Amino acid sequence: MKISFAATNPCHVYEMAQALHRRDALGVYYSGYPRWRLRDPGDLPIRAHSGRTLVTYASLRFIAPRFRPANRSLFLWQDRGFDRWAGRELEPCDFIHGIPGQCLELFRSAQRKGLTPVLNHATGPVRQWIQLLRPEYERAGLDLDTVTPYDAAYFQRETQEYALADYHCAASTVVRDQLVAEGIDARRIWVVPYGADPAIFHRRERRPPERFTIAFAGQIGLRKGLRTFLETLTQAGGRDWAVDFYGPVLPEARPLLAAYDGVLQPRLHGPVSQRELAEAFRRSSVLVLPSLEEGFGLVVPQALNCGLPCLVSDRVGARDLIHNRQNGSIVAYDKADELLHELLWWAAHPGSPDTIHDWEAPAEALIAHSQRALQLS
User: According to a count of CB atoms within 10 Å of the terminal CB, is the N or C end of the chain lower?
Assistant: First the structure.
């Protein structure tokens, strides 16, 4: 059995492809990134088509916004060019996984060649997560439609991709439930969680801090539940805690951070490398991820591998990995008092999970789902 993947960005499917390759179950990994930009490609069977990706990111980095096409147009140009190329180059396999919004021609090609298309979902359907986020953006006086790359043409394309997909691979039960709400037959949905690289994210050399230290990792914006987290810190008062933010501060977050007047002042570290993030996790007490919408949340297995308990909202897909007050806590996404209650509990009951969430179990799960599908075909 051979399983192939196509993705403009390496995201989660690249590490899944590596794990499948170790089991001789990988067909081809079709990449929008050049091979030299992929981490540890080894002898992975990679076909790359990266011209548009390089142009897109070079434009974003080096050309002022007023002189370049809109971000939405750039990424559509990137994704659709990659999709057409992957469809033309598609080689025989049993399953081909595509990413929503960039696999219409790929799936059409798969059907013509008698291959099985699988739509691979890191997040739930776009229409649903926009609905989940819209109230928070309206509260901040922002129009969500202007800050997302999705328009009527995108939704039409996505609808066509859904119709062509034989199966859906979902990152979590949260994503699965959202797909079911969209009318997808639950029997055609495979739940396959994500892992983290234990060579980088591990608990060796873990140094528990003297002060209770809260880590917040990822893009610092409204979607990540920043408002709820800042309300929690305000309620915490003058406790002797440290708060560290790792990741870029989005423009939408700056008014909230500027207005925050709590005693506990977060330390903003900006974007950091994966190795730097792992070191930060090993010297923290808990990770907080109170997102309003999060199909999975890769920082959760990364943190757990480092021995860091994770406090996540009930809208975070990686809640599937959390056992309450054993390796973390699950709280309501909009309840600052609940989050504070769990922070106080972990401050009084420090712990360090010792389980490893790598990519081996997810790869085995995907192979098992794929084998069952072959038996039914």
Answer: C
Question: 217: buried, middle or exposed (CB in 10 Å: 19+, 13-18, 0-12)?
Answer: buried
Q: Given 3-state DSSP classes, what are the helix, strand and coil percentages for the chain, each rounded to the nearest 5?
A: 45, 15, 35
E-state strands within 259-347: 267-268, 286-289, 310-313, 328-331
Q: Torsion over CA of 6, 7, 8 and 13, rounded to 10 degrees?
A: -140
Which residue spans within 171-270 are E strands per DSSP?
A: 189-191, 212-217, 241-246, 267-268
**Residue 322, burial from CB neighbour count under 10 angstroms (0-12, 13-18, 19+):** buried
Degrees (nearest 5) of the Cα angle 345, 299, 52?
Answer: 160
Where does 63-195 have alpha helices with state H? 71-89, 104-112, 126-139, 144-147, 152-164, 173-181
Return the amino acid letter for 336.
A
DSSP 324: B
To the question of pTM greater than 0.90 for the whole model, the response is yes
d(CA 223, CA 244): 18
CB 27 within 8 A of CB 91: yes
* Beta-sheet strands, E only, within 248-338: 267-268, 286-289, 310-313, 328-331
Instruction: Count the Cβ atoms, other than its own, within 10 Å of residue 345.
Output: 13
Question: By three-state DSSP, how is residue 61 classified?
Answer: helix
Distance between CA 241 and CA 284 in Å, rounded? 11
CA distances from 154 to 25, 127, 149, 369 (A): 32, 11, 8, 29
pLDDT digits (tens, 9 = 90+) for 125-174: 998 989 999 999 999 999 887 777 788 888 899 999 999 999 999 999 99
The number of beta carbons lying within 10 Å of the beta carbon of residue 326 is 11
Distance from C-alpha of 342 to C-alpha of 326, rounded to nearest angstrom? 12
CA dist 182 → 60, 124, 198 (Å) = 34, 10, 35
Structure tokens at 278: 């792992």
Instruction: Write out pLDDT tens, residues 2-34.
Output: 999 999 998 899 999 999 999 999 999 999 999
